[in-house]
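Hi V.,

You were right to ask for the full record rather than a summary. Here it is.
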Amino acid sequence: MAKQYRVSVIQNGKALCDVDITTPWADESLSKVLALFNDSSEYETKTFVAEDARQIYESSPEGIRVIASDPIFVPVNS
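Predicted structure:
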């Protein structure tokens, strides 16, 4: 599984958004996203990394295929 991150952005104590990073260059993208929000004291960020995934499979005469995949995110220890 390629590295995936989720950055939760909090503004003035309230959840603003979650940014999911799923690019092949996820480490570089994470640095850029954190730089955007950490330049201001108005924002707080919490970073999570996908450690595993829940998957739903379909079995048919043609074989088995993944129907859905839901990443399981855990906090990154900074």
